[in-house]
Amino acid sequence: MGLAPTYLGSVMSQIIVNGLMLSATYALIALGITLIFAIMNVMNFAHGQMYVLGGFMVYYTYGVWHWPFALSLLVAALVVAAVGLILERFFFRSVLRRSRREESTMLLAVGTALLLDSLALALFGEKQRGVPDVVSGVYHLAGAYIPARRLLIFAIAAVLTTAFIVFINYTRPGRALRAIAQDRETAALQGVDVTRYSALGFGLGAALSGLAGGLLISTDAINSGAGNLISIKAFIMIMIGGAGVVSGAIAGALVLAFSEAIGYYFIPGSLPYLLILTGLIVFLLFRPQGIMGRRWG
Amino acid sequence: MNRLLGPLIGLALYLGIVPLLIHGSSYWLTVFINISLLAFTSLGVWLTFYIGRINIAQGAFALIGGYAVAVLTTLHGWPFWLALPMAGLVAGLVGGVVGSTILRLRGVYFAMLTLCLTEATRLLALNWTGVTQGASGIIGIPTPFGGDSSYLQAYFFSALLLLAGLLAIWRITQCRMGRVFRALQAHEDLAASIGINVAQYRVLAFSIACAFGGLGGAVLTVFLQSIYPTSFNVTNSTDFMLYCFLGGLQFVLGPAVGALVLFLGFQLLSALGSYQALVYAILMVLAMLLLPNGLLSLRFSVRQKSMREGQV
Amino acid sequence: MSLASKPHLSLHNLSVYYDTVRAIEGVGLKANRGEIIALIGSNGAGKTTTLRAITGLVKPTFGEIWYEDQRINGLPPHRIAELGIRMVPEGRRIFPLMSVHDNLLMGAFLRRNQAEIRQDIERICARFPRLAERMKQAAGTLSGGEQQMVAMSRALMARPKLLLLDEPSLGLAPMVVREIARAIQAVNREDGVTVVLVEQNSRMALRLSSQAYVLETGKIALAGASAELQTNDRIRRLYLGISDESEPLTL
Question: What are the backbone dihedrals phi and psi of residue C108, each rounded to the nearest 5 degrees, phi first?
Answer without folding.
Answer: -90, 25
